[in-house]
Amino acid sequence: MSMKSRHNVDPAFSMSSMTDIIFLLLIFFMLTSSFITPSGLPVNLPSSKSTNIVMQKVSVTITKDMLYFVNDKRVAPADIETAIKRELRNADEGVVVLHIDKSVPTEHLVRVAGIASSLKAKVSIAAQPNE
């Protein structure tokens, strides 16, 4: 009398579930990596020992040629307050990130930071990390 097992185990391994997991992880990392958008304007930032990454909602850039930009849109210096106020209404958080070229006089930085503070926004200054 021969005793055979009724349950035959297939030794082959199916990789289809593994590829599904890898595909989902790829989608997850692609979506989460695009949350930080750097400013597209050429600004020579000052360096700092410690820098924090802040989610940019409103970005104010002053170039070395004294051109003002709010979220990469050129703005006249006299209209900077209304432009920041308009962008803060559209943003979820009141965070203003200042991208100021290091050759720009400090009075311009203080002026824009004062405007943002008067609009009850948190002000952060962008800098490059020391190497």
UniProtKB/TrEMBL annotation:
InterPro entries: ExbD. Keywords: Cell membrane, Membrane, Protein transport, Transmembrane, Transmembrane helix, Transport. GO terms for molecular function: transmembrane transporter activity. Gene3D superfamilies: 3.30.420.270. It is a single-pass membrane protein; Single-pass type II membrane protein. GO terms for cellular component: plasma membrane. The keyword Transmembrane helix applies. It is found in: Cell membrane. Its main location: membrane. Pfam families: ExbD. GO terms for biological process: protein transport. Belongs to the ExbD/TolR family. This is Outer membrane transport energization protein ExbD. It comes from Marivirga tractuosa (strain ATCC 23168 / DSM 4126 / NBRC 15989 / NCIMB 1408 / VKM B-1430 / H-43) (Microscilla tractuosa). The lineage of its organism: Bacteria, Pseudomonadati, Bacteroidota, Cytophagia, Cytophagales.
